Amino acid sequence: MTTKTVLITGASSGIGYAIAKRFASEGYAVVLVARRKEKLDAVAKELKQKYATPVTTISHDLSAHNAARTLYTKMGELNINVDVLVNNAGRGHYGQCIDLDVEMEEETIALNVTALTSLSKLFGKAMASRHQGHIINIASIAAFIPGPGMAVYNASKAFVLSFSEALHEELRASGVGVTASCPGPTESEFFELAGTDKMDNLKYAQMMSADVVADEIYTAMIKNKSFVVHGASNKLVTMLPRTMPRTLVARMVKALMK
Ligand SMILES: NC(=O)c1ccc[n+]([C@@H]2O[C@H](COP(=O)([O-])OP(=O)(O)OC[C@H]3O[C@@H](n4cnc5c(N)ncnc54)[C@H](OP(=O)(O)O)[C@@H]3O)[C@@H](O)[C@H]2O)c1
């Protein structure tokens, strides 16, 4: 049996690192992509030792111009066929939208939206030509609700969910699966980097373990679910816009994001 390969973006920490362990434990060869080379090398060493699986690391800034095409070309040069693509790399910033740096938020959109879209299109086409493969896009429960306090982040995740659901349907007959994963608050470096330490209410958030989220993502892929929301209380949050006026939901989120 030939070894399958998974490419995971944002595999140097948090949910991406947990996903890398989960796939390695299933015998996948793993391609780890992120910017911090030393972190990727440490993850690679751990995966090789623990699971005796082939690991390739690629230090790459996915918010750079043409980042997706460069990565896709690199995979061709390395002669690596990607069976499963996990678009996990993402970031967000906390604050009043008009006060947050314009260039910084453009980079967030380039990473969360542009790179994810182009990687899905490029690898999705290659997978469809082989009539097999799977794309996993990490969205968020933020995809279901507007986010006063993290306006660009929530909007980017709404894009990821909508795009993934559409792609799931488009590719259904091709043998390629597409799944959007929607975690709620999960243990990772995300909150520190997002600047949410300024948020008083964060201490009330119930953090899920990244390993549990990764396990549920793997199961959702096997079942070819179009999307999965992780955790019971997070499922409840995603129901809000379906039961309440949207203006009220936005006001409630604004109050919670204090
Ligand atoms: N944690 C949560 O509560 C939560 C909830 C819902 C959804 N999510 C989503 O889950 C995904 C993973 O985030 P996380 O929570 O695991 O946070 P994290 O620990 O900060 O991980 C983010 C990953 O993305 C990589 N990354 C960031 N900018 C990059 C860039 N420009 N180019 C390439 N890689 C980049 C980071 O590596 P380098 O810094 O080494 O590049 C890191 O590996 C994100 O899409 C996030 O939006 C998280």
Continuous helix count: 9
The CATH class assignment is Alpha Beta
Helix/strand-derived category reads alpha/beta
CATH third-tier fold name: Rossmann fold
Shape: globular
Query: What CATH architecture would you give?
Result: 3-Layer(aba) Sandwich
Taking the alpha carbons of the first and last residues, their distance comes to 53 Å
| Rg | 18 Å
For the sheet with most strands, the description reads:
7 strands, parallel
Q: What amount of the residues lies in strands?
A: 5-15%
- Total separate domains: 1
Could you give me the name of the CATH homologous superfamily? NAD(P)-binding Rossmann-like Domain
Percent range of helical residues: 40-55%
Element order: H for helix, E for strand = EHEHEHEHEHEHHEHH
Q: Tell me the strand order in the biggest sheet.
A: 3-2-1-4-5-6-7
Question: How would the blueprint of this fold be written?
Answer:
Elements lengths: L4 E5 L4 H12 L3 E6 L2 H15 L3 E5 L7 H11 L6 E4 L14 H29 L2 E6 L12 H21 L4 E7 L7 H5 L15 H13 L4 E3 L2 H12 L2 H11 L2
Parallel strand pairs: 1-2, 1-4, 2-3, 4-5, 5-6, 6-7
Helix pairs in contact: 1-2, 1-7, 3-4, 4-5
The structure holds NADP nicotinamide-adenine-dinucleotide phosphate.
NADP nicotinamide-adenine-dinucleotide phosphate binds next to α1 and α6.
Brief sketch in words of this structure:
With 258 residues, the protein is of the alpha/beta class.
Would you mind describing this structure in some detail?
The structure is a single chain. The protein has 258 residues and is an alpha/beta fold. The chain has one domain: NAD(P)-binding Rossmann-like Domain (Rossmann fold, 3-Layer(aba) Sandwich). The protein is 50% helix and 14% strand. The chain contains 9 helices and 7 strands. A 7-stranded parallel beta sheet has the order 3-2-1-4-5-6-7, with helices on both faces. Strand 5, helix 5 and strand 6 form a beta-alpha-beta unit. The radius of gyration is 18 Å and the shape is globular. NADP nicotinamide-adenine-dinucleotide phosphate binds next to helix 1 and helix 6. The site of NADP nicotinamide-adenine-dinucleotide phosphate has 29 residues, from helix 1 and helix 6.
